[in-house]
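Practice problem 4.
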């Protein structure tokens, strides 16, 4: 069998990164290289022709996930004609949905990679820069007035993680609804009191 062209090698690399991004969010970074390459439709031996180490792939997979999420958020913002509050509410609704809970492979990298980065400090040191920027950018999409969006993001990520851990129990959907309510009602303008 002949060598693959440079274009094919690049396409294979992108396929591995995209596959890893999904698998790592769904199953964690402990996924084996063999399972990952099989899922990408490539041989295990080809991995080290593309990547110096699994840690390099984890870095790229995290960056890929955040880039993908940023593109999705930009589209949502544009679809709402630049209305920040409408886009923010849509982000909250989508994030705290049953669909998002049940599809971690297609979900947010903030919740998808948090446990692995917290558990593996040597890996976290390499990937942390990309992750931190992703967290800050995600929070900025939620920011309103004097609120930098960090507490909102913490509420969303926490609720999603808890909802995934309790899936199959009514508590799971209660958690999602409680967070949605807290985040959307807190942004409502205060009713004006009558002064007469």
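Answer key:
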């Amino acid at each position: 069998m002949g060598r693959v062209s440079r274009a094919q090698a690049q396409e294979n690399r992108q396929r591995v990164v995209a596959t890893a991004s999904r698998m790592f969010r769904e199953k964690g970074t402990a996924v084996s290289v063999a399972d990952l390459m099989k899922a990408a439709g490539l041989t295990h031996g080809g991995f080290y022709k593309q990547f110096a180490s699994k840690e390099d792939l984890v870095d790229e997979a995290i960056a890929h996930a955040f880039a993908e999420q940023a593109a999705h958020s930009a589209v949502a913002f544009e679809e709402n004609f630049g209305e920040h509050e409408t886009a923010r509410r849509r982000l909250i609704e989508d994030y705290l949905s049953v669909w998002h809970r049940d599809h971690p492979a297609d979900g947010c990298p903030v919740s998808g990679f948090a446990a692995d980065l917290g558990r593996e400090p040597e890996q976290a040191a390499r990937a942390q820069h990309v992750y931190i920027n992703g967290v800050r950018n995600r929070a900025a999409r939620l920011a309103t007035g004097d609120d930098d969006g960090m507490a909102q993001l913490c509420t969303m990520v926490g609720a999603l993680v808890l909802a995934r851990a309790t899936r199959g129990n009514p508590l799971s959907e209660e958690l999602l609804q409680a967070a949605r309510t807290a985040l959307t009602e807190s942004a409502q303008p205060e009713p004006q009191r009558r002064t007469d």
